[in-house]
Amino acid sequence: MRKIENWNTGWRFAKTADVPAALPETWQAVTLPHTWNAQDGADGGNDYWRGTAIYARTFPRPVLEPGGRAFLEFLGAAMTATVYLNGRQLGRHAGGYSTFRVDITDALADTNLLCVAVDNSENDTVYPQKADFTFYGGLYRNVNLITVPAAHFCLGHHGGPGIRVTPEVDSAAHVAQVQVETWQTGGQEVVVEIEGLPRSLRTAPNAQGRAETGIRIENCRLWDGVDDPYLYTLTAKLLDHGVEVDRITTRFGCRTIGFDAEKGFLLNGRPCRLCGAARHQDRQGLGSALTDAEHEEDIALLREMGANTVRLAHYQHAQHFYDLCDEYGLIVWAEIPYITRHMEGGRQNTLDQMTELVVQNYNHPSIVCWGLSNEITASGGVTPDMVESHKLLNDLCHKLDPTRPTTMAHAFMLDMDDPFVMASDIRSYNLYYGWYLGDLEQNDQFFDEFHRKHPEAVIGLSEYGADANPAYQNGKPEKGDWSEGYQALYHEHMLKMWSERPYIWAMHAWNMFDFAADGRSEGGKPGQNQKGLVTFDRKTKKDAFYIYKAYLSKEPFVHICGRRYIDRPEDVTEVKVYSNQSAVTLLVDGKVLAEKTGDKVFRFQVPISGEHTIEARSGALTDTITICKADKPNPAYRVEGGEVVNWFDRPDEVVREGHYSILDSMESIKKSPAGAGLLANMMAKVTAGYGDVAKSVTLPEAVQRQMDKMPLEKLLKQAGKSVTPAMVKQLNAALNRIPRVE
């Protein structure tokens, strides 16, 4: 029978490409999961170590049945792994996020030296290579030894489980015809059983080692998302001469899915408004080397917020997390790391990674679509080779899985009328109006225009967000201040926008958690993207978390915003409460100030003169914070350079007659070669803090023309605190030295 032994202990590690002939006792002892970028991948500078390292361990010859085989199973080795046993190369796998297995049987000795060379260095064939997140290296998921008899269910089928289950469901009649396929080596018969059903089915494999059968489930219980995520358990047994020699088990759900250009997503024939967040798989201090406990905490936070969907970006996630989504009913967008920059030499790798994603995750009822790419046009627009690669990926997905649609996450720069927008079955856009550029209302306008122009097309919102450092507070939040307050206002707007447009098939906030992006240097935390609704260490839920809870969760609550905004210089301060209740009472120092009825957001104006205890109540629900009247703003609450906006209020220091200034439009300044060069240098400095991706972004001509007509002063304001007072003064002084060109 099959045996699985965890091999997370006993490893030695070194940053070297030289495969040793014996186990080096001087190498660092490590326990898996492990990444070598847990620290330097999240400290800023875009200088984390990328290269080849080796993991080594010894082991005795495993006990095998006559004719039995031994496989090593790697659940995640980033990004390319080469496996050596006793100096002999046995396998190579390119792709850092999927499972792969290596048959080591024929290279076994009585005492064995296993070496795994893992490489996350830059190249032009294996994705990802350019993106706004850290590409951790290491054996960051479990490693197992699997031993099987001579006759066994296949372990070499693209890292898959060896079994595929396809329920064909009549959700109205609650009847399912379940098609079961297995792949095996040897054996004469396969027995299939579904837990709780009275009968089993027997079938014989064909000459290619594939067996197929069907089971009808009457009165089937539907997998119905977060309301009732019911799972069936199916076991396949392999018989050899009538004796069971191997068995595998999988879970599945009976459900139907659909996508409609007017109604959005349909689950079991009913419209189901999807709203949640995207998730990266890393954590402060651990990097990507997570255990089951961290995965479970992440899904618990998603569930607390009330999310019914999660975009597992930008790569294949751990099987345990897909299992958790099945168990708790979260709808999943699954994707491969074909992102930001199209590489002509990387086509085969995208096909390989997609094959593994689909084969390994086919049985998960939570997954409803396969993501082909993310913002792939950001670094250079649409090319014929890119279009062909997407056509091949799209066709591959339909061949491997006719039951789910393909999707793409488009960069905002891609014109909505470009034919490439329709390359997948359904689609979503990544929009950052109100943060990186433009105003919040432009998000509304974008969807209204898209739906008017393409009424037959299914459209969603795959990314949107605003960075927030919980240490930064502002009594008057504004775009670019990295304050917790502005992030909350941003998401208030986006949720209202979504609630008024039922045709948006899903909306995924970017991001559920802050995550490592070592190329970033902004907002007081170098090396982090801070758009998360929860901090990188999972210890702080930002205020924006609770506006989602107000919209999505059925758990009654009240939450007072601004609990970290303690020192307040204003005489009358706004106290904002988020709640999914219809009425909230606010008490100041134990006395009722006001009671308000409303919907999700309750605002109160509170006079302050000293230290005050603020309490919000709704029935038995309560939340309390403490605030203090301050003589002046607390400088710790503002990102460095926070006073830049005030400098714009002094135009007498800006203009020099006959010369340019920040009050001129970019279009006017670009008429001068010296002015054009100065602007190019300025843009390079502004985008530097946002990492490599921002540097490579190409704006569409229409957007660039719109920006060019705006006064430079307005653009600098929209850039927020990535533009310091010193930068503004230096730029204006330089412009004052350039004669105007009429």
Note the main sheet.
8 strands, parallel, barrel
Uncertain residue ranges: 641-651
Number of DSSP helical runs: 14
Average pLDDT taken over every residue: 93
User: C-alpha Rg, in Å?
Assistant: 28 Å
- Percent strand equals 25-35%
What is the tally of beta strands?
A: 41
How does this model look, in words?
There is one protein chain. α3 packs parallel to α4. It contains 14 helices and 41 strands. The strands form 10 sheets. It has an 8-stranded parallel β-barrel with strand order 24-25-26-27-28-29-30-31, surrounded by 4 helices. Strands 3-2-4-10-7-8 form a 6-stranded antiparallel sheet, with no helix packed on it. A 5-stranded mixed sheet has the order 35-41-40-37-38, with no helix packed on it. By secondary structure, it is an alpha+beta fold. The N and C termini lie far apart (85 Å). It is globular and about 95 Å long. The longest helix has 17 residues.
